[in-house]
Amino acid sequence: MSAPTPTEPRGTRRPDESMTLLTEVMNHPLDPGYAEAARARELGTRGRPTVPGRTVALLLAAALGLVTVVAVQSLRAPSPSIVEARNVLQQQITERQDRADALSRSIATTSAEVNALQSQALAEQSPSLLATVQDDTVASGAVAVSGPGITVTVADASDAVADDGTVDPDRRVQDSDLQNVVNALWAAGAEAVAINGQRLTSTTAIRSAGSAILVDFVGLASPYHVQAIGDPDTLRSTFAASNAADQLKVLGESYGLESSVATEKHLDLDGGGPSTLQYAKPLG
Predict the structure, then answer these.
(1) Please, what is the angle between helix 232-240 and helix 175-187, to 10°?
(2) Cα-atom radius of gyration of the chain, to the nearest Å?
(3) How large is the average pLDDT for residues 217-230?
(4) What is the pLDDT of residues 153-176, one digit of tens each?
(5) What pLDDT shows up at residue 139?
(6) Is the link from the previous residue into 52 a cis peptide, with omega within 30 of 0?
(7) I need a surface site. Which of 12, 37, 248, 270 has the fewest CB within 10 A?
(8) Beta-carbon contacts of residue 86 (< 8 Å; ≥ 6 apart)
(9) Mean pLDDT for all residues in the chain
(10) Angle at which helices 127-140 and 80-125 pack, to 10 degrees?
(11) What string of H, E and C letters represents the secondary structure of the chain?
(12) What is the dihedral of CA 178, 183, 184, 185, to 10 degrees?
């Protein structure tokens, strides 16, 4: 059997014959229509666009722009069902917040009546025990108190929220920042402390939930006014020398958090209500 006769002499094939597509792209990068238009422009034979042609092109561009705007607005606009659901949710939140406020006022009124009856009964039976109970309720934050003191105000940085709505957590007050301020005030001799009117008791917790700070499960917002009752001069000088004051200064220089300390001649702090006892024993 004889070998087939090659159609081409050996060595006449192009080295890039197997890459025809790549070769065509490299040698002819422009579509033939584009190449013809470029050649006509170079030779000056390309006709000028007519007025009707320009008018049609302008109308087409305007129509495309209008369609694009309408499409974008349609996509951004919420559906009626979503708007209705959001309105219902907002109404429910408002109603339940009003109910919670009414219940809080009722609890405060009832607690005041209970304290009055308790004081009346103890005043007749054991005046010394009444004095002890009154001291303990003040220390635990169960009853309202008033007197001189100071107010430490801590606020988020002015640029904590960007123009596009994004929030920089480093430029917002954290729960740990308020914890440090409160602990420094207790150490400075504060007799009672409240944050934005929310009295701190012996069982109060300062925690964060998302971007909100909770004090006894009550959400608070910046600026945070930490009020402390006690000797104003002692509170102010001792707090100024504390680590909490140094930390506030560093946060202000690094992240733009705002803080200030003001002396108060008179402060009124509401009571936090009676505490739920887990363990108790008779007084000796």
Answers:
(1) 130
(2) 39
(3) 92
(4) 999 998 888 777 778 888 999 999
(5) 72
(6) no
(7) 12
(8) 78
(9) 81
(10) 150
(11) CCCCCCCCCCCCCCCCHHHHHHHHHHHCCCCHHHHHHHHHHHHCCCCCCCHHHHHHHHHHHHHHHHHHHHHHHHHHCCCHHHHHHHHHHHHHHHHHHHHHHHHHHHHHHHHHHHHHHHHHHHHHHCHHHHHHHHHHHHHHCCCCEEEEEEEEEEECCCCCECCCCCECHHHCCCHHHHHHHHHHHHHCCCCEEEECCEECCCCCCEEEECCEEEECCEEECCCEEEEEECCHHHHHHHHHCCHHHHHHHHHHHHHCCEEEEEEEEEEEECCCCCCCCCCCCCCC
(12) 90
Q: Is the overall model pTM greater than 0.70, yes or no?
A: no
As given in the structure block, the two tokens for residue 53 are 């042609």
Kindly report, residue by residue over 121-162, the tens digit of the pLDDT.
Answer: 877 777 877 777 777 777 777 778 899 999 999 999 988 887
Residue 261 φ then ψ, to 5°? -130, 130
The amino acid occupying position 256 is G
Q: Which amino acid is at 135?
A: D
Contact 230, 189 (CB under 8 A): yes
- CB-based burial, 51-88: b 16+ in 10 Å, e otherwise: eeeeeeeeeeeeeeeeeeeeeeeeeeeeeeeeeeeeee
pLDDT: which is higher, 232 or 162? 232
The winner for highest mean pLDDT among 18-27, 59-68, 179-188, 197-206 is 179-188
Other C-beta atoms closer than 10 Å to the C-beta of 222 total 16
